[in-house]
Amino acid sequence: MRTKLHHWKVIATGLILFDAAAMIFSYFFGLWLRFDFQYTNIPIEYLSAYARFLPWYLAAAVIFFWFMRMYRGIWRFAGLFEFLRYGSASLTASIAHAVCITVFFQRMPFSYYIVGAAMQFILLVGVRFSYRFILDGFRKKEDAGNEGQRAMIIGAGAAGRNVIRELQQSEKMKCKPCCIIDDNSNKWGRFIDGIPVVGGRESIPSNAKKFNVNQIYFCIPTIAAREKKEILDICNETGCSLKSLPGIYQLANDEVLVSRLKPVAVEDLLGREPIRVDMEGTFQYIKGKTILVTGGGGSIGSELCRQIAAHDPKQLIIFDIYENNAYAIEQELRRNRPELNLTVLIGSVRDSRRINQVFELYHPDIVYHAAAHKHVPLMEYSPNEAIKNNVVGTYKTAYAALTHGTQRFVLISTDKAVNPTNIMGASKRLCEMVIQSMDAVSKSGRIDILPFIHAHKDKVIYGQKVYDPVDHMAAEGGKIKIESVKNKERTGTQFVAVRFGNVLGSNGSVIPLFQNQIAEGGPVTVTHPEITRFFMTIPEAVSLVLQAGANAWGGEIFVLDMGEPIKIDTLARNLIKLSGLKPDEDIEIQYTGLRPGEKLYEEKLMAEEGLKKTDNELIYIGKPIPFDVETFLQQLEELAKASYENSPDIVEMVEEIVTTFHPVGEKPGNQESKDMTQKNKQQENKPARTPVLNYDEQWVKEYKEQHGTDPSFF
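User: That's the sequence. What structure does it adopt?
Assistant: Structure tokens below.
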């Protein structure tokens, strides 16, 4: 059987022969030099000692070099480490040579030891590095003929050095580092691996032109977010493609490689540090709990499920009406968390019986309510659907949580609920009011004031006590109040809302839209040149939601300080630049005008809500706005009925309830509903429709007597 002879073994054999010849020549050269290059002048005793000792030295040195791995290196990547290792091996061999020949054979001339050792070092180390130098020379000639990819490195630190070396050594990287930018003026005019440090951030545009670069590698993993944004804004002006290191952990793990570089993400341009939340206590709260996530297949819902699944819940229940999303997150979690007790259910939060069935079967300890219609223009055309899904769906889910002993209920809200100008934002403000009302009811024990929007036989209707009222929060004078109970004992369900801005990369956000438009060659559509929005990342949003669930006392609206608002026009232009293109030249930007219900800016809090600090300086609590809970619940009952009847006046009804709601422009949804009014009037004399659900007749009779309406519309 033939054994394959590896190329490196051939190289190793050649190096052994070369090393032997080099050692023979080196010490003979030292002796020869001492006697003025005259062989006949060398004393016979020196030649005899040299000749008798050399075979022993060669054998011992080659064995020593083998154990020092001097014959197993990959010479094209030889660097400082190899240089020091080979140098120390040669020096050790030279010291052994001097000691042994002097002790056992003959004391030699001083120049013999010094010149022989130096020549041996030069030959042994030089031949090993010559391959790399020759290879680098060929590569530089090749690069000179191929100016396609030229890179500017931002950062003259350890990360930048590693990236430069990989670019120089890799055969696959067809990119030549040309210059380095660093704000430390002490480094200007100096070199790293032959690449000059040419100046600070202000010189980026001029040096990009001077060195004709078309790629910029951002290699400062420790920089603050705001400072990084300032540098990246300057880089964007060059039109070069940008890539960045993910973060400091790459440097700590010695993973600073070109392959680790990623295209600069839009979140890098937000100009603020990511929110830092101490999640240890939060995850301890989640551990061992049964947790329900409604809308669990969506952007926020699915990330909630991922974070919860990683911290040992007793059971995770995903509830979503869209089976494709639910299936996708189910498969991901089952693949990555096989030990997880996972249940995935399909259903609508608008279906009272389905929601109550889920609560009766699984009795969740914590509910994260992410199910909602969120698209502003679409809801303007279908306002009744916004009320049905967002408001009624939230009410029914919260009602089920209250009556089944759930510990905490967390509503996912939005900054569009602040002074809303569209029905989607107004519906989310109504959801917040639902949560505040439910929390007040939970504190007071006045469950009797809740309208029967669930439209089926709830246990509480028949007098079955499902939880104990909280004595110290009992009603005063027949009315209940909205207030905080922090630092007081609580036994009922705690309801809380979490409000944040636009989530980067979520379903329906502008980022995927812009990216698709850029990929198609444009145009990129922006509604208005001055429109601004607050942005946050999905992990930031989820961390806030989870912490709210762990720290809620009831009735709060948690708000994230999202920094300064970002112009959507700036965001679009930056995305185009990050793609290596020029706005208005390579990709056209078109302004399409504000869409129905859209406003130029969003607010984080209504002025009258105020702010209260938490332990995290970036998280605040809005003080609940007091309102008459009983009056609101009566209005809510009428609103729900109107929405299921597809009322043409639904927006006006919402305006009466949400006093901060000020619709802008023509309401397309209203107009569509009003167009149906005449048709509906023509059908008034027709026989009444058959109820959708087959209710218990006695219960329907009791409901009609108490409320004056047929509950079948639910």
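The longest helix spans residues 110-145.
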